[in-house]
């Protein structure tokens, strides 16, 4: 696949062409700094920030995303009988509850977060049970990487294709790849960054 090669990735500024912006990889920190300097909302996921910057560069519009209020599990005590409710947020209070009930191996994984958000009528006792079931299902399966984690996806794809190479090799190829316009998925041509 042919990619137009520029000498370096363009700096994100008010003059950045929205089409060019969409071709390059920008860190969340860069997107947040751009939003802050242009009076845009700085909260949200990387995907939300990217869309906010793209809209601003295209139209000059400053979109605002209103967050829904936090439910009881995010503001009060969490017990096994507490109903999860809509709009669950992974707070430290919630993490402490699960660490207490499940143990130090507990982590908010993607499958569990999806379960929590799609079962607002369930209790946290149900959630503890669901967590165990999700872990059982995951045994022998590869974890799912969310689409916003481009670096992790790239590194996994790199090692799938090049099992004998080092993490340093993968990182050097990633740094080269993200400086180019287009997809940030691994391609065999990326090995040129390490002379292969």
Question: Structural class given helices, strands, pairing?
Answer: mainly alpha
Global shape: flat
- Number of distinct helices: 9
Tally of DSSP β-strands: 0
Mean pLDDT: 85
Spans of at least 5 consecutive residues whose pLDDT stays below 50 are 1-6, 69-73
**Relative strand content:** under 5%
Instruction: State Rg.
Output: 21 Å
Terminus-to-terminus distance: 17 Å
Summed up, the domain count is 3
Order of helical and strand elements:
HHHHHHHHH
Biggest sheet: strands, sense, closure? none
Commentary on this structure:
The protein is built from nine helices and no strands. The chain has 196 residues and is an all-alpha fold. Helix 2 crosses helix 3 (46-59), helix 6 runs antiparallel to helix 7 and helix 8 crosses helix 9 (167-178). The longest helix is centred in the last third of the chain and has 15 residues, at 124-138. The chain has helices at 18-23, 28-37, 46-59, 72-75, 92-102, 110-118, 124-138, 150-161, 167-178. It has three domains: 1-67, no CATH class; 72-138, no CATH class; 150-194. It is 47% helix and 0% strand.
Summarize the helices and strands and which ones pair or pack:
Layout: H1 18-23, H2 28-37, H3 46-59, H4 72-75, H5 92-102, H6 110-118, H7 124-138, H8 150-161, H9 167-178
Helix pairs in contact: 2-3, 6-7, 8-9
């Amino acid at each position: 696949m042919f990619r137009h090669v520029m000498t370096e990735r363009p700096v994100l500024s008010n003059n950045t062409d929205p089409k060019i912006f969409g071709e390059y990889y920008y860190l969340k920190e860069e997107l947040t700094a751009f939003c802050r300097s242009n009076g845009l909302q700085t909260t949200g996921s990387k995907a939300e920030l990217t869309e906010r910057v793209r809209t601003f560069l295209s139209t000059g519009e400053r979109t605002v995303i209103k967050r829904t209020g936090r439910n009881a599990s995010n503001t009060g005590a969490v017990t096994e009988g507490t109903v999860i409710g809509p709009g669950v947020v992974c707070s430290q209070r919630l993490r402490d509850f699960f660490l207490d009930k499940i143990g130090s191996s507990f982590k908010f994984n993607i499958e569990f977060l999806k379960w929590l958000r799609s079962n607002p009528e369930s209790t946290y006792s149900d959630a503890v049970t669901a967590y165990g079931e999700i872990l059982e299902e995951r045994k022998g399966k590869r974890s799912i990487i969310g689409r916003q984690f481009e670096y992790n996806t790239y590194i996994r794809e790199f090692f799938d294709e090049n099992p004998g190479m080092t993490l340093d090799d993968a990182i050097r190829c990633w740094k080269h790849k993200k400086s180019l316009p287009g997809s940030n998925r691994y391609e065999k041509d990326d090995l040129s960054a390490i002379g292969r």
